Amino acid sequence: MATDGDTLAATYDVMLFDLDGTVYHGPEPIPGVAEVIRGLRDAGTAVRFVTNNASRAPGDVAESLRGMDIDADAAEVSTSAQAAAKVLSERLPRGAKVVIIGAPALENEVAAVGLEPVRAAENAAAVVQGHWAETGWKHLAEGCLAIRAGALWVACNVDATLPTERGLLPGNGSMVAALKAATGAEPVVAGKPEAPLFHTATQSANASKPLAIGDRLDTDIAGAVTAGVDSLLVFTGVSTPADLLAAKTTERPTYLAADLEALDQPADDLVPGPQKGWQVDVGEHTLRASAKGSKDPYELLRALCHEAWQSGLTAVKPQDDVAAAALAALGLTPTA
Ligand SMILES: [Mg+2]
Fold first, then answer.
1. What is the distance in A from the centroid of ligand 1 to the CA of 217?
2. Phi, psi at residue 229, to the nearest 5°?
3. 203 alpha carbon to ligand 1 midpoint, in Å?
4. Ligand 1 midpoint to CA 190 (Å)
5. What's this model's pTM, rounded to 2 decimal places?
């Protein structure tokens, strides 16, 4: 947490950015992000781009970011493939055979930590599984045999779906589900919402005070909570203000803001809690919001979170036109 008056960026020594919904939407950068990241670099704050996708090499991710005018180096990209390789290296002797169900990028990470990537089950000490568009029955079959023979099983991530321009496609979690069905086993998970990826990203920057930044409560924020890392939720992606009011304790961020421009604001101002400019009262069935000088919808949201998380109430009734406009801006349907 911050000391008085420090900006959010100045309170931490590395920013762990989620990608889709936080830095870009598909092929388009989110407006203002390139400037924000440039500002962090100028201030000497480390930046890591943290992705659950194990199919792309760090260099490819960095290149696509540079294509959007966002400064990025391969060393600043942390993938779930790297985190999975780290988990394997901590549990296996050097040179142990690891069945790869995944892309060449995953194979490279496994080799880079001194383990032997293989494609057949015989004598394998572990199985590692990450997203790869080429994964087929033969790959799953080798993994199945190794896991049934007692091999350690590590999944890069367990997202059930993969967002694409054509819609949601089967993600690594769906392929993991196939092996769960075939083996009755459970994998160790390296990516979000588990902790290892946050730790490998922080260590790679030689940092000790990370801030995780993302758009999803169930992966970015849940993972940060599991890893014991402070987090900022932004509303440029999947999760909505209504989701946040209803968030369980394991999915509540340290800070919330509309977008990444918040990194330049005082950290204390971004914490959910009572706000000078808004009054929120807890009624029998609803929260009641009144303006006390502010029009800022995100200030209202911080005040609403504070009361919603204590009371369990998520319905909100505006008491004046200013509150009604702020609720509308947050996409919160006012209760009559
Ligand atoms: Mg995201």
1. 9
2. -115, 140
3. 22
4. 17
5. 0.93
